From TrEMBL:
Residues 29-55 have a biased composition (Low complexity). Pfam families: Methyltransf_25. This is SAM binding motif-containing protein. The lineage of its organism: Eukaryota, Fungi, Dikarya, Ascomycota, Pezizomycotina. PANTHER family: METHYLTRANSFERASE (PTHR43591), SAM BINDING MOTIF CONTAINING PROTEIN (AFU_ORTHOLOGUE AFUA_4G12760) (PTHR43591:SF100). One of its GO terms (molecular function) is methyltransferase activity. Residues 29-56 are annotated as: Disordered. SUPFAM superfamilies: S-adenosyl-L-methionine-dependent methyltransferases. Residues 118-217 form the Methyltransferase domain.
Length: 403
């Protein structure tokens, strides 16, 4: 990354800054940049060219805790940091999900069709938009415009990579999206469940994305659960699983989840500790610890708005081979399959690290006690193969074509 990056969206450009209804109130007064020469934690910095008050969370959005940057607005429930290590973690998670799903989109409606205008909500680094652009370009579809929306400008200038890209700064807690109705061919949302309270999501997760989507357009949501369970031995694939999806599961040594998939509570002591703390902390901050259930319900609740819907849920065992896989005398995991499990585990360990402020509070531990717990947890998970009982990352993709 360049030594100091200023996102082009912060200068007036594009249709959304010209139309007063969709004006970016902060974009012309605030400069937000992430620089690579920022010290150990690589935190996102925000500075304002206008005088900002201490309660101006748009111009001055971050606070530092333990050398990491977090949103300062006490009304914002988002519990993860906003800095370079967190962007890297999210990129790793995006790559993990694209590997298990086999593409940047699961919706079959997109195959052979070029969406003209794509919206990525809570886009973060914009990695997904970039990957989707490359995916479409490989199929000869090069004229797609990508609009990324986030509360903070984190993405590099994707235009330099040849992506027809614009960034819109917007808070998803506001009641409406800053776009006209029926504007986009494809709306994509990944790992955005922590942006809003669980109640707001239950009531209204899909209504605004559906409003801005054209008839016949596709809405797709990807997310991951924050509480971890253990997959029990011999999960059988869902009976109606498409051959292509079955092949993808086989290639990646992952397991497709159906309502019949057998799960038990995690057995690893450290994951059990984490599960109890994250549930307590999320309850306090009114966040959903198992968004995969909420998102599935939201698609069911909006069934009338869609012509067709679909979903895929996948369990990725964490770290290495599960004990019951070893005894099945099946083929050994390949290096690729093992690295996928390692990547999934790494994104979880780094997520626990990022959520330290709220988890430490929920645990009631002092800093010393937390540091000891943290050190023992990383040794157990990374060096002692403490997750051989099937503890897994549960991820999901849901999509629907607007009727
Ligand atoms: C877990 S990250 C996911 C980012 C990206 N979708 C990805 O998968 O890499 C969540 C994103 O939501 C953004 N965010 C948090 N609260 C938000 C809000 N109220 N409105 C809009 N974006 C928000 C964060 O800045 C962050 O980029």
């Amino acid at each position: 990354m360049a030594s100091s990056y200023i996102h082009p969206s912060l200068t007036p450009l594009g249709p959304y800054s010209l139309d007063p209804r969709f004006a970016l109130t902060s974009s012309t007064t605030t400069t937000t940049h992430i620089s690579s020469d920022r010290g150990a934690s690589g935190s996102a910095e925000a500075s304002s060219s206008s005088v900002s008050s201490s309660s101006d969370y748009v111009a001055n959005p971050f606070t530092k805790i333990n050398n990491r940057s977090y949103f300062r607005d006490p009304e914002n429930p988002y519990p993860l940091p906003c800095d370079l290590p967190e962007i890297h973690r999210q990129s790793l998670r995006t790559m993990t999900l694209m590997r298990v799903f086999g593409a940047p989109s699961c919706a079959p409606q997109l195959e052979g069709k070029s969406p003209k205008r794509v919206l990525e909500l809570a886009c973060g680094s914009g990695l997904w938009s970039s990957a989707c652009h490359d995916y479409l370009a490989r199929r000869g579809q090069k004229d797609t415009t990508f609009i990324g929306l986030d509360i903070i400008s984190l993405a590099p200038n994707l235009r330099k990579k040849g992506v027809n890209w614009q960034f819109v700064r917007h808070d998803l807690r506001k009641p409406s999206l800053p776009f006209p109705s029926e504007h986009f061919d494809f709306v994509f949302i990944k790992d955005a469940s922590l942006c809003q309270s669980a109640t707001a999501q239950q009531i209204d997760l899909l209504s605004e994305p559906l409003r801005v989507l054209k008839h016949g357009g596709v809405l797709e949501v990807w997310d991951s659960d924050y509480v971890f369970r253990a997959l029990l031995p011999n999960p059988t694939p869902p009976p109606k699983l498409a051959e292509k999806d079955q092949d993808q599961a086989y290639t990646t040594a992952t397991y497709t989840i159906s309502s019949a998939t057998p799960f038990a509570a995690a057995q690893n002591k450290y994951l059990l500790d984490y599960n109890s703390w994250v549930e307590k902390a999320f309850e306090k901050h009114k966040l959903s610890a198992m968004p995969c259930a909420t998102i599935g319900l939201s698609f069911t609740a909006e069934a009338d708005a869609f012509q067709r819907v679909g979903s895929r849920r996948i369990a990725i065992p964490l770290g290495a081979e599960v004990r019951w896989e070893q005894t099945k005398k099946q083929r050994k995991l390949t290096a690729d399959q093992l690295s996928l499990r390692q990547m999934a585990l790494l994104t979880i360990i780094q997520m626990i690290e990022g959520m330290e402020p709220i988890l430490k509070e929920a645990s009631g531990k002092s800093q010393d006690e937390w540091d000891r717990w943290w050190a023992a947890m990383t040794v157990d998970l990374l060096q002692k193969n403490g997750l051989a009982n099937g503890e897994c990352l549960e991820v999901g993709a849901w999509w629907g074509q607007k009727g």
